[in-house]
Design goal:
Length: about 425
């Protein structure tokens, strides 16, 4: 072993020793805290990232490519484009769809239907690309887009549907795929909360022309920040590789195609489209490769704790509405969302204050009803219907953590805290 390798080994061993001393995120009933999230990474991921730093191979390269291919394997193709966040993954999908070089490109003024209960950057890329979001209500049980309302909201300018698998609960992909086929609408799946989820045995993200995922710190697996857009078409993936990095051909798979087309411009600095800089780093690719094999285990831990809580909290069904897994779906439980019933003798602040006092962190569900957020009021959009259910989620919804470190003792602690709150009413 070379001197350099020996030194590296020492660094790695020091990291391992540090992490085994410092990284215990399991629930401690003597000082109970249930965080919204606990880290999914430790020494292996840190060392994978450190290795990039030590070798100075830090900018996007082989490790990102290997991660993209590994991530795509369950989707049956190789068209994954990693970027620096789930928001960038959404931006890349929409920017590719609305690019003049795209197959059947969307045009400014075209409408894309989105659920009211979504994240801001589900909707902003549509606005940024001159498209018009059409906001549709959600089903109060699954919290996903209401498919009858979706179909009724289609108008003469509607060209696409961008769905969100809310908190990892797969949308009804039979109904949505049929609607999209019947009305010739392009489908984009925002799966940023739904890593590891599937419908009818197929992973979410495999149904749409594009599927997007986030690897933000608090998600099912992480590259700290990070995201990926997967595409059914190799042409869409090539276009996203260009848009991701300056409009440059540097990252495309088929370099020859562009060189032949523009023989008079230096091929190393050939810019064939507009572009952003949304690149991931090599550190993120390296971390992703370590995290990916752990994903199924994390998701199954989340499913176990969610199922236990669903059963345990059923006794409060008149006061607290829980999320139902979509029939035929495999939910990956990003968190545990609850909506306080309209006839409950308390409001959402009462219950979240009580839980917070017991060390149980809470938060609103996604960004509530996006149609009510001030940011959207400045830009063209259309609202379909009265959005009653999304308003209810915004006014009376909350969630707490349902991460991989919530064990039975932690789940019982949460359930007991809720019982205690209800009994004291
Ligand atoms: C539905 C949805 N879309 C997009 C995003 C954006 O992902 P990121 O935070 O990685 O930018 C999030 C964030 O959690 C999300 O919940």
């Amino acid at each position: 072993m070379s001197e350099r390798e020996k030194l590296k080994r020492q660094v790695f061993e020091a990291v391992e020793a540090y992490c085994s001393a410092a990284h215990d995120f399991s629930f401690d009933s003597t000082a109970p805290i249930v965080r919204l999230h606990e880290p999914t990474f430790s020494a292996d991921e840190i060392n994978a990232a450190l290795d990039c730093m030590l070798t100075t191979q830090v900018t996007m390269g082989t490790k990102v490519k290997v991660f993209e291919k590994s991530f795509c394997a369950p989707f049956g193709h190789r068209n994954g484009v990693m970027s620096n966040s789930g928001s960038s993954a959404n931006l890349l999908a929409i920017a590719a769809l609305a690019n003049p070089d795209a197959r059947d490109a969307l045009r400014p003024g075209d409408e894309v239907i989105v659920p009211a209960l979504s994240w801001s950057t589900t909707v902003w890329p549509l606005v940024q690309l001159g498209l018009v979001p059409v906001i549709v209500d959600v089903d109060p049980k699954t919290l996903n887009i209401e498919t009858n309302a979706l179909e009724r909201a289609i108008g003469p300018k509607t060209r696409g549907v961008m769905i969100v698998h809310v908190y990892g609960n797969p949308c009804d992909m039979d109904a949505i795929s049929t609607i999209c086929d019947n009305h010739e609408l392009v489908l984009i799946e925002d799966c940023c909360e739904a890593l590891g989820a599937s419908f009818g045995g197929s992973p979410v993200g495999a149904f749409g022309r594009f599927g997007t995922f986030s690897f933000y710190f608090s998600h099912h697996m992480t590259t700290l920040e990070g995201g990926i857009t997967i595409a059914q078409g190799a042409d869409d993936a090539e276009l996203m590789r260009i848009l991701r990095a300056h409009g440059w051909i540097r990252e495309v798979e088929d370099q020859e195609h562009w060189r032949r087309r523009y023989p008079n411009i230096h091929p190393r600095f050939l810019f064939v489209n507009l572009g952003y800089n949304l690149r991931a780093t090599e550190l993120q690719g390296a971390m992703g490769m370590v995290q990916l094999p752990k994903l199924d285990g994390y998701v199954s831990a989340r499913r176990t704790s969610a199922q236990w809580l669903l059963d345990r909290l059923e006794r409060h069904a008149e006061l607290l509405q829980l999320q139902s897994e979509t029939a035929g779906g495999y939910h990956s439980w990003f968190g545990f969302p609850i909506t306080v019933s309209s006839n409950a003798p308390f409001d959402v602040d009462d219950i979240t204050t009580a839980l917070n006092k017991k060390g149980i962190e809470t938060r609103p569900i996604i960004c509530g009803n996006i149609a009510r957020q001030p940011g959207l009021q400045m830009y063209p959009h259309r609202v379909y219907g009265d959005l009653t259910h999304s308003d209810a989620v915004m006014a009376r919804g909350f969630s707490f953590g349902n991460h991989q470190d919530i064990d039975r003792v932690a789940s019982a602690y949460i359930a007991d805290a809720i019982d205690e709150f209800v009994e004291a009413l």
